[in-house]
Amino acid sequence: MKNDLPYGNGEKVLLHICCAPDATYPVFYLRGRHYEVTGFFYNPNIYPEEEYKRRFSDVSRFAVRVKLPLIGGEYNPEKWFSLTKGYENEPEGARRCYICYRERLEVTARLAKDSGFDFFTTTLSISPRKNTRWIFEIGEELENTYGVRFLKADFKKRNGFKSSVILSRYYEMYRQDYCGCIFSRHNQKSE
Ligand code: SF4
């Protein structure tokens, strides 16, 4: 089918996971395409820490239910705030988001390389609110820098986003109402 990934042959994929609902469809889809998936939760953008813990806890619960190996990344919001300094007032979808995607993808690429994965990719592409062109551009850049292949998966295709909504209801997941950072939280609250 158009937009499908080529079938794998048991290659190991490190899947960056931004939250539990967004992880559902990508995990099943990649497994269905014969990739061996490991999740990696690395999201220093999430504010406040209680929200970070809540999202990580839901991802962990899902991982146990579907027997997904899961790696928890470091929670280092200070680094994220220093990377995005000067871009606090940007709207969602602008430069701050590019930096935010890049940080999460770079740490994923580095871990994939150091741990012997064949590919890295991210659940971020499932969201219609995320810029997939940027995600692919960053993934390709990091592929060249770190020498580990980026799997160009646009998970929102093939009704991926709709499926993730249905699956997240089935697994009784927490669905947050803002993207993650303090700035997106304020915007949400003022809408
Ligand atoms: S709005 Fe979302 S993608 Fe953009 S900087 Fe905030 S957390 Fe990151």
Descriptive report:
With 191 residues, the protein is of the alpha/beta class. It has one domain (12-190): 3-Layer(aba) Sandwich (Rossmann fold). Helices cover 48% and strands 11% of the residues. It has helices at residues 20-32, 49-65, 77-83, 95-114, 132-146, 160-170, 182-190; strands at residues 12-17, 36-41, 70-72, 119-122, 149-150. A 5-stranded parallel sheet has the order 3-2-1-4-5, sandwiched between helices. α1 runs parallel beside α2 (49-65), α1 (20-32) packs across α6 and α4 (95-114) runs parallel beside α5. The termini are far apart. The structure holds iron/sulfur cluster.
Please sum up the structure shown.
This protein is of the alpha/beta class and about 190 residues long. The chain has seven helices and five strands.
